[in-house]
Design a protein that fits this description.
With 328 residues, the chain is of the alpha+beta class. It has ten helices and twelve strands. A hairpin with a 7-residue loop joins strand 1 and strand 2. The longest helix has 19 residues. Bound molecules: adenosine-5'-diphosphate and magnesium ion.
Length: 328
């Protein structure tokens, strides 16, 4: 059944599930109106997801809705910001009600868990593209930045690395795994990433720099190092690997490549001064995702890897949409 643009908005997006007190005007006018408390800064991020590019064309609508918001919540986490409001620009090839219903279910169930409210957007016809903009709140001057890492700081990551990279190959039939629960787990990590929002909030005042891992550990840690004007040493033997990745990828070299180079995990990578490590461990004890120390910041520029399975890195460094040979 085909719906008009206004029916789609009314039926699926103008749902007052989360009514925040700081929203004066939500969906329905020419713009939304929100209020900001004194001493708060706005953190704003936007991410566009294009079908066939950022997710396989046959991805479930619910997973697309979840992930479009999750990647933005992950940016808030990396800034230590508390996500508050989102806007959604949606291009749909056709007004497919089943798709919109599933998409909205995925988006709203994640939004509800983090108390973020959809306050506006745009709905147009075009190749399937989902663009979510998120607005978060952070006390003045307390945002976590990529710049700020100092020599001697310890480098940590949340959760496990490489799962989503393996999930993508499984999803595309380019990797086989007979262990069905592990296979499902890795695909779940790709399609329903859990943004580390609470970890990000608790890293305020503790982390000296932070980033979320969307393009792969080496690429994203590289951004911290560049922004901070420092280098680092990583011990590859300490990379946190999930049981599922161990089971589905028996080759240790390939596992290491997933953990170092594959994107889409949406874990946090952050640096912590040695004096803050005890506080970090205390706070992180309550985080379900856990944390792992994988290395140390050094004054000499560049990233040095020790403990590699293969002895030398033969890695695909993170993902770059405009890299040579990458045509889309
Ligand atoms: P305008 O022409 O002023 O841009 P629209 O007709 O595009 O207004 O949208 C009407 C209202 O619905 C606006 O408040 C807009 O923010 C909201 N809206 C449109 N599409 C979406 C969407 N996909 N999700 C949430 N709100 C939407
Ligand atoms: Mg509009």
């Amino acid at each position: 059944m085909s719906l008009s643009e206004f029916q789609i908005i009314q039926r699926y997006f103008d749902r007052h599930l989360c009514e925040r007190e700081d929203v004066q005007l939500g969906i329905g006018d020419d713009a939304a109106l929100v209020s900001l408390a004194a001493g708060e800064q706005l953190a704003i991020a936007v991410d566009a997801l294009v079908a066939g590019r950022h997710f396989p064309e046959d991805t479930a609508a619910e997973a697309i809705g979840h992930k479009a918001l999750a990647v933005n919540l992950s940016d808030m986490a990396a800034m230590g910001a508390e996500p508050a409001w989102l806007t959604l620009a949606l291009a749909l090839p056709q007004a497919d009600e089943a798709f919109v219903e599933g998409f909205a279910r995925g988006l709203f169930s994640l939004a509800g868990r983090y108390g973020v409210q959809l306050i506006g957007g745009d709905t147009v016809r075009g190749p399937l593209t989902v663009c979510v903009q998120i607005h978060g709140l952070v006390p003045q001057g307390q945002a976590l930045r990529r710049a700020g890492a100092q020599p001697g700081d310890r480098i940590y990551v949340t959760g496990r690395l490489g799962d989503a990279g393996a999930g993508l190959l499984l999803r595309q039939g380019r990797l086989r795994c007979n262990d069905e629960p592990s296979r499902q787990w890795l695909i779940q990590r790709l399609e329903y990433p859990e943004p580390r929002v609470f970890a990000g909030l608790q890293l305020r005042g503790i982390a000296s720099a932070a980033i979320d891992i969307s393009d792969g550990l080496l690429a994203d840690l590289g951004h911290i190092l560049e922004a901070s004007g420092v280098g680092a040493r990583i011990d590859a033997a300490r990379l946190p690997i999930s049981e599922a990745l161990l089971s589905c990828v028996p080759d240790a070299v390939q596992r290491e490549q997933f953990a170092l180079g594959a994107g889409d995990d949406y874990e946090l990578c952050f640096t912590v001064p040695p004096a803050m490590e005890a506080s970090l461990r205390e706070r992180a004890a309550t985080w379900a995702c856990g944390i792992t120390c994988i290395g140390t910041v050094e004054s000499t520029a560049g990233l040095r890897l020790s403990g590699l399975v293969c002895g030398k890195p033969s890695l695909q460094h993170g993902f770059d949409h405009f890299a040579a040979g990458d045509t889309a």
